[in-house]
Design brief:
74% helix, MFS_dom, 2 domains, MFS general substrate transporter, Growth Hormone, Chain: A, mainly alpha, 366 residues, transmembrane helix, MFS_trans_sf
Amino acid sequence: MALGVSAYLCSCFAAIYGKRLVFLFTTVLMIATCCWGAAANTYNSFLGARIMQGLGMGGFFALAGTASINDLFFVHQRGFRVGLWNFAVIVSVNITPIISGYIIVDLSWRWCFWILVITLGVLLDSVAALEKTHLGDGALPEIGTGSISQHASLWRRVLGLENLEIKDQSRIFRLCISPLLLLRHPAAVWGSLMWAVTFTWVIIQGAVATQIFGYSPLIGAALGTLFGGWSSDEVAKVLALRNNGVYEPEFRLLVIIPAFVTIVIRGFGLGGAISSELSPVICGVFLAFINFAVDKAGEAFGLAMLIKNAFAFGLTFMLNDYYADNGPRVFFFTWGALTVGVMLLTIPIYLFGKQIRAWADKNNIL
């Protein structure tokens, strides 16, 4: 839940303070809170550390995989890059429990956090050394003015903030409220629902499926994220050529078709396989389909993160009980039907996408 709030707010803060400063602050916050988690001696202290860690993760979720990629790459190149970023996120979610299990057994659970401190220290150095592009929306002056950098202090030069100029901080309240107005846009509602429901399968897998089988479907996750991003770019380019070179955002929606097929296979197939007590290998194949079909949608990414995380946070209180009370068939069939229903909303978005965009432009919604 803290991650969802942080991702939402970091998108707003980056518009005033610049993406670079947000990256630096959230990375330092992650290092401090991982030290806190490793040293915690009570549950309440540990809980506080975990909440603050969620706040620290928001910068990378809100900016690294979406806004920064959009700033650096052309529209026909973004799908593959976002796919690579999703690959890193999804694969790490699946492989980390395996690695951390050995660390906990051989060293202790505290060392999971100390190792994170070390790796986050490397990340902080990378942010300071490599994130040199000027990416703020109005937070940075034009490159080459030199009006600020000539008199910048040492710490600003070391952190690469010598050209940072913060303007009109009074905008922060309006910027934090304005994303909520995106819910007037059908595409924003569709994207938020799609991501919340499809990514729920990762939560289900972690809360239920991994408990049953004891392993993570890493291969399906890797293939799904790489194929989804690459195919999104390729489909968009082919259709743009057939459209006299004009790109339409709706072209990318066709990637939903293979995702829809795999969702049907995974949801109903996994529930039937577990309830019929089929072999773990067969069930593992369906688990791979789960991760293959998960795809992150998202222009209004901060808003989608907030909705998705709030939805997932609520689910954590009932997933295991629902599975225990109703069994695997009802459990997976229910979530499969819910996901299919939401994905079918893609059809009107695709058919009426141009009209929706014209209406949104006319009413200044985006």
